[in-house]
């Protein structure tokens, strides 16, 4: 299922449709056998099969979280509990200690804001202007997603501007796409409709952004056409 899920995402299926989309390859596992039995040797019903598929899908998603950098893992854990709300700094210290990362690193990375006794994720509208992945010395997957989401909807942004970010992310682009899906799932479960909409749109557009990014150089600028070579007779 992991490969099938990755293919579904690459095909541009948005997070809102993922739960339905994974049923196909999931049920495909069961159709390889003449019978699928429960522990008591009775035939497994469709309801149980669907529950197993959903559980495996959730396990795969959770396992993917460990591929993120430590700052992003802390941000993801915070978001899943508090969203963009600020809380006493002690809450962040607990999460930072669990991931063995200094509190100062979370602030210096531009992921969390130090609110003097409180802390919280930096909201998209408060992210510094002029940011690019290539200039960030402590680039995190969290930043890649939040900045791309902001520029995609900004009046002076749009698809080309967002694709420049993706082009500059290099190998981190795939993880950024995976994080967008995870943030949608969390937002949807929490009932945060506006946040869910942001990440669903971003995830749906990601394949298009990668296509545009592929035509750009590593700096996020359109690649120059190759120069012809003259041959003299």
Low-confidence sequence ranges: 222-233
What's the end-to-end separation, in Å?
58 Å
How many helices does DSSP assign?
11
Question: What is the alpha-carbon Rg in Å?
Answer: 21 Å
Strand tally is 3
What does this structure look like?
The longest helix has 22 residues, at 193-214. Strands 1-3-2 form a three-stranded antiparallel beta sheet. With 233 residues, the chain is mainly alpha-helical. Helices cover 58% and strands 4% of the residues. Helix 8 (141-153) runs antiparallel to helix 9 (159-169) and helix 9 packs across helix 11 (193-214).
Write the layout of secondary structure elements.
Blueprint: H1 2-10, H2 18-21, H3 23-30, H4 46-65, H5 70-82, E1 87-88, H6 89-98, H7 103-108, E2 112-114, E3 118-121, H8 141-153, H9 159-169, H10 172-190, H11 193-214
Antiparallel strand pairs: 1-3, 2-3
Helix pairs in contact: 3-4, 8-9, 8-10, 9-11, 10-11
């Amino acid at each position: 299922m992991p490969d099938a899920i990755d293919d579904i995402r690459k095909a541009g299926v948005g997070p809102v449709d993922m739960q339905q989309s994974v049923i196909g390859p999931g049920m495909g596992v069961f159709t390889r056998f003449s019978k699928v039995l429960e522990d008591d040797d009775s035939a497994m019903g469709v309801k149980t099969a669907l529950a197993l598929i959903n559980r495996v899908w959730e396990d795969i998603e959770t396992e993917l979280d460990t591929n993120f950098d430590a700052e992003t893992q802390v941000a993801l854990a915070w978001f899943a509990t508090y969203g963009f709300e600020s809380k006493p700094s002690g809450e962040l210290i607990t999460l930072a200690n669990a991931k063995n990362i200094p509190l100062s690193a979370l602030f210096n990375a531009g992921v969390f804001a130090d609110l003097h006794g409180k802390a919280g994720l930096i909201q998209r509208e408060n992210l510094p202007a002029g940011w690019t992945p290539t200039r960030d010395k402590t680039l995190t997957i969290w930043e890649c997603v939040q900045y791309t989401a902001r520029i995609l909807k900004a009046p002076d942004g749009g698809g080309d501007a967002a694709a420049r970010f993706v082009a500059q992310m290099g190998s981190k682009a795939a993880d950024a796409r995976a994080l967008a899906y995870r943030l949608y799932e969390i937002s949807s479960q929490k009932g945060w409709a506006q946040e869910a909409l942001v990440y669903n749109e971003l995830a749906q557009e990601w394949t298009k952004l990668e296509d545009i990014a592929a035509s750009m150089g590593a700096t996020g600028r359109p690649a120059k056409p190759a120069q012809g070579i003259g041959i003299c007779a």
